[in-house]
Amino acid sequence: MSLTPSPGHELPSEHYLNATYGIRSWLLTTDHKRIALLYLASVTFFFFIGGTFATMIRIHLLTPNGYLVTPENYNKLFTMHGVAMIFFFLIPSIPAVLGNFLIPLMIGAKDLAFPKINLLSWYIYLVGGGFVLYSFSTGGLDTGWTFYTPLSSVYSNSAVTPAVLGVFINGFSSILTGLNFIVTIHTMRAPGMTWFRLPLFVWAHYATSIIFILGTPVIAITLLLAGLERMFHLGFFNPVLGGDPILFQHLFWFYSHPAVYIMILPAMGVISEIIPTFSRKTIFGYTFIAGSSIAIAVIGFFVWAHHMFLTGQSPYAALTFSLLSYLVAIPSAVKVFNWTSTLYKGSISYDTPMLYALGFIGLFLIGGLTGLFLACLGLDIHIHDTYFVVAHFHYIMVGGAVMGYVGGLHFWWPKITGRLYPESLARIAAVTLFVGFNLTFFPQFILGYLGMPRRYHSYPPEFQVLNVMSTAGASILALGYLLPMIYLVWSMRYGKVAGRNPWPATGLEWQTDSPPLTENFDVTPEVTWEPYDYNNRPELGLAVTGEPSLAPAHGDD
Amino acid sequence: MHRTGELYGQFETMEQQREAASLGMWVFLVTEVLFFGGMFMTYTLNRSTYPDIFGEASRSINLTLGAINTVVLIGSSLTMAMAVWASQVGKKQLVTIFLISTLVLGSVFLAIKAVEYHEKFVEHHVPGFNFSFEPGASIATNAHAQLFFSLYFAMTGLHALHMIIGAGLLLWLIKQSMRGRFTPQYNTPVELVGLYWHFVDIVWIFLFPLLYLIDRH
Q1: d(CA A391, CA A398)
Q2: Is residue A53 part of a domain?
Q3: Taking a C-beta distance cutoff of 8 angstroms, is the pair A400, A271 a contact?
Q4: CB of B6 within 8 Å of any CB in chain A?
Q5: Given a cut of 90, is residue B23 above it in pLDDT?
Q6: Rounded CA separation B59/B53 (Å)
Q7: Whether A241 contacts chain B with CB within 8 A
């Protein structure tokens, strides 16, 4: 395939960023694109908070006895790291930032169905975040992010109540976002945008929204009961008063296991957009990828008790949950096979988003396969609550979800800001992240297999080498995160102007201005083409087979 | 987004707007089912663990008041349904009258609930430090009876909170209705608040037998 360089562009004179000015125009906006940017700023803030705790954990674990913090404070560090990262960064990251920005653009709508509710969910997020920050700054909490009772409801002396309240409140932000997405996808599609012409990113968010609306209310009521138990000395989950602590774990994981799919499904949606774009090929097995998102969301609701194999649950229950957990591997593998089949004989270019996508596939594969180890009843007894588990879920959450998020940010950055980031620097950052990530977390698989338990502030001296490797990796990883933050902010002002469709890609979002108008499109678009038709869209610079087509635009060409 | 008449800017047609609003309310009610579901699960588990004490504790709450409240609430669902009907056929005055009757019945329900809570308070059946199921009861009996009352207060309390929110929505509807805003072409808010109100009633239809009637034969 011969490529012609992409031409120069100018910014559109009017777009959502310059339509109105002033602090009120942001804080009271109902534009889904501006709300997405509000979310971008706030989740980045919580990422910093959670990242700071992670850094302290890794520094503390440099030596077997750990000199940085006391054992009590170590418990608080890993708890606050988990709470900040899971509830306030990972869960809202892709849906509330990229999903919010892109879903209306991708389906050809002017906005989400309920723009005011969209803004409301951001404010609910802030209120929930405020309570959690209050807990962090008035002594922190030490229960683990899982808030297991009766530790959280009776015995812990830390600031549990505000944190539980904060997570409870934040749940409603998720619920409203999910509700908004579902209604928008059902009712706001442009003419010709049928269900099977929807981008796979939208399918992934539809599946995620199902989990948002079905799972989140359960964690909300569970935390409410635990909070009431703590405040009024009730006994729902306290065995001393006749309650059942295992019930809390069931209710907690009924949400919190599907919550893992809230984090990974949107990332899979991002990857499904990036891979065909930089392979210049129709995605392989569209309906299977779309269907597997829904399958993951549905099966994901029936696997929760695999977190509780060692609670003394009935062996028949354990066997069933083990089997069901294996089942999730099928739709996950369907996706991986379809992505790799898309790459096969594609015209691949290694642009930054593609590096993240390829990294995602590798890391998700490791994370997913080690999940099978953990779903295995016998093996789980050995590695339960060890660093093996820590490594496994970081491969999914950081290697998967965060890679997808950062890759997606790069991919749609030209649409969000109208400008390109510096390509070579971005490629360096992507490789740094990948190397740093693996160096941080791969040693933890070995540590866990050798028997190092999680959530301990000290460890036997023979584990030091692997822990030092992990900490060294974490510093590379931190650099990998700092670089994009710096050059992305820089590019907002100084980056090369991107034009409507810099890669070029086939999605509807690329057929309007970058940055888009407040109303997204001049006229409501009408969709007459099939999705990901990379061989049949000459009007986008994607030539029919054999003809020259446009090269991806780079910020530093 | 700008609004033209009753049509908000993000929508193309009134039809689309009505569809979105109604689907939104149904999805919201699904989340509500799951929200209450966690408590029903907690209730079910504890009742099957302590069937005798749950029966005994259940007998101590006032069946007459509970039964009256059930009738009151079903009546309020009827007036709510009538309000929706009236708004669809364009009988503007009737809409207001039925909405006000719904609000009155809802308030009667909350008032009776307050009387019941007061009874429990006097009997030391409110969970917490002063809880005592009956004089001379063993520690275990007390603890398990307290579980029942914790669930009783959590479940009816959350239900009452939903009633209060519903009453607020009704007040807003009555104000709009008095201005004659609801017509056969535009009555979505009445319809949606109606859906919400019926949902809250249905929750009570489950709460009543589970809390009041478990051991009354």
Answers
A1: 10
A2: yes
A3: no
A4: no
A5: yes
A6: 10
A7: yes
Say how far apart CA B99 and CA B140 lie, in whole Å.
48
A522 found inside a domain: yes
CA dist., res. A143 & res. A369, Å (int):
29
pTM of the full predicted structure? 0.96
Q: In which domain, by residue range, is A464 found?
A: 27-550
* Mean of pLDDT over chain B: 94
Tell me how many domains chain A contains: 1
Span between the terminal Cα atoms of chain A, in Å: 20
Question: Are residues B127 and A186, on separate chains, in Cβ contact within 8 Å?
Answer: no
Q: Which of A247, A200, A239 shows the shortest CA–CA distance to A222?
A: A247
Task: Give tens-digit pLDDT for B151-161.
Answer: 999 999 999 99
Answer yes or no: do A182 and B27 touch at CB < 8 A. yes
Are the Cβ atoms of B46 and A243 closer than 8 angstroms? yes
| Residue to substitute from B19, B27, B151, interface A, most A β-carbons within 10 A | B27
Nearest-by-Cβ selection for A232 from B20, B42, B128? B128
CA distance A76 to A145: 10
The domain spans of chain B are 26-212
Q: What is the pLDDT of residue A1?
A: 55
Identify which of A393, A375, A79 has the alpha carbon closest to the alpha carbon of residue A264. A393
Q: Quick one: which H or E segment has residue A3? A: strand A3-4
A212: domain CATH number is 1.20.210.10
Q: Is residue A555 part of a domain?
A: no
Mean pLDDT of A48-70: 95
CATH number of this structure's domain B26-212:
1.20.120.80
What residues of chain A, 95 to 154, have a C-beta less than 8 Å from chain B?
Answer: 109-115
Three-state DSSP string of A104-117? HHHHCCCCCCCHHH
Are A231 and A369 in contact by the 8 Å Cβ rule? The answer is no
Chain A residues close to B16, C-beta within 8 Å: 187-188
Residue A94 lies in a domain: yes
